[in-house]
């Protein structure tokens, strides 16, 4: 409904809010939104609560994002920014593709600054259908299709998704459930075991 | 703390509750608990609420299970009963092991009666540390170690866990997030793509 290039809708934020606007404010709202979604869950997060956490007027949150679903979608996009590196990884030597993806993926999850927001998104999506819908649209459109376009195997999108499933399962067992022995395994050991799996899915 | 063979603790349930006791009552409490955990989440589920849903006195729930953590552990065990078939699958022809596991696992998730309780457990574990702790103990003790004992590869437990990670990731993308194309793919197509992955982890 809301066009990204023309987000202004009925009403207008008060002059003080308007003067605080800009890319930095938008980012501040998104970071606050991410924290709210992570801590309270999707259902209990409100536009008003996001505004309060960001230190801006609620009208400004509506001004930038329209609805809660749209803030959530934008915060997913921000949280998945590290994942956006994956299509670029396809450009290197094809026979080390699985290894490159495994190493970058685990690197993102090893780093607590990038892990927390991803975790928040995954948790929201697993417990709220509205959040799941936003996430599945995003995963397919931004990630799987872009990867699949570079592959020359049959069913490239399905294969890309099975590779993603492998990495998501690892993230959940290693970083969320913290199930041993995976939780304490060395990154490089996991990379060496997982790389051939990803390689087989993506290059056949 | 509580020994499974001698669950009776201080105090005792009233005579009426005692007379209703037995394996059927225990199962009724567990089924009620599973529903409560699934619908309310771990935090909001109470011993009293479980008793009410099962139509028994709260003292009886305490009598059988002691604490909420113990009810949760027992309901995980009940929900994972279908997974207990996995160690048995190791007995067939070794070169079709991956295929057998993939087919049985997807069969359990395709069937809504077995999917719902598994989903409830996964959701609880992803959103509550107490539940995650119970699940990780269970997964390692009952599932991974039993599978690993039958494997003749290096790091058998880690490899079994990576195979589990693949299947958990598929369950989440296909049945929870419902991300395409995996959500609509034929079971047999998924089996044929995933079987070699499991096979490689488990037999090298």
Q: Mean pLDDT score of chain A, rounded? A: 83
Q: Strand fraction band of chain A? A: under 5%
Oligomer: homodimer
What is the straight-line distance between the termini of chain A? 41 Å
Largest interface: A-B, 44 and 44 residues
Question: Largest sheet of chain A at a glance?
Answer: none
Number of strands of chain A: 0
**Helix-strand pattern of chain A, N to C?**
HHHHHHHHHHH
Count, helices of chain A: 11
Measured on Cα atoms, how large is the radius of gyration of chain A?
Answer: 19 Å
Shape category of chain A: globular
Low-confidence stretches of chain A: 1-19
What share of residues of chain A is helical? over 70%
Computed structural class of chain A = mainly alpha
Brief overview:
The structure is a homodimer of 204-residue chains. Chain A is mainly α and 204 residues long. The first copy, chain A, is built from 11 helices and no strands.
Folded structure, characterized:
Chain A has helices at residues 15-20, 23-44, 47-54, 58-65, 68-79, 86-89, 97-110, 112-127, 129-148, 156-176, 187-203. The N and C termini of chain A lie far apart (41 Å). The first copy, chain A, is built from 11 helices and no strands. With 204 residues, chain A is mostly helical. The first copy, chain A, is globular. The A-B interface holds A 41, 122-123, 125-127, 132, 135-136, 139-140, 144, 155, 157-159, 161-162, 164-170, 172-174, 176-182, 185, 189-190, 193-194, 196-197, 200-201 and B 41, 122-123, 125-127, 132, 135-136, 139-140, 144, 155, 157-159, 161-162, 164-170, 172-174, 176-182, 185, 189-190, 193-194, 196-197, 200-201.
């Amino acid at each position: 409904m809301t066009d990204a290039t023309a987000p202004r809708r009925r009403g207008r934020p008060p002059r003080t809010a308007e003067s605080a606007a800009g890319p930095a404010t938008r980012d501040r709202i998104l970071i606050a939104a991410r924290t709210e979604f992570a801590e309270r869950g999707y259902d209990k997060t409100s536009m008003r609560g996001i505004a309060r956490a960001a230190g801006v007027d609620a009208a400004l949150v509506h001004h930038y994002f329209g609805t809660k679903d749209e803030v959530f979608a934008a915060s997913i996009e921000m949280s998945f920014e590290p994942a956006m590196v994956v299509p670029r990884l396809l450009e290197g030597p094809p026979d080390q593709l699985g290894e490159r993806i495994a190493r970058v993926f685990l690197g993102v999850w090893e780093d607590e600054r990038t892990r927390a927001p991803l975790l928040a998104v995954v948790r929201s999506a697993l417990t709220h259908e509205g959040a799941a819908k936003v996430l599945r649209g995003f995963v397919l459109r931004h990630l799987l299709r872009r990867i699949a376009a570079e592959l020359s195997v049959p069913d490239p999108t399905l294969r890309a998704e099975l590779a993603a499933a492998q990495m998501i399962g690892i993230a959940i067992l290693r970083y969320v459930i913290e199930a041993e022995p995976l939780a304490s395994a060395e990154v490089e050991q996991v990379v060496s075991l997982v790389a051939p799996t990803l390689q087989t899915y993506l290059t056949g």
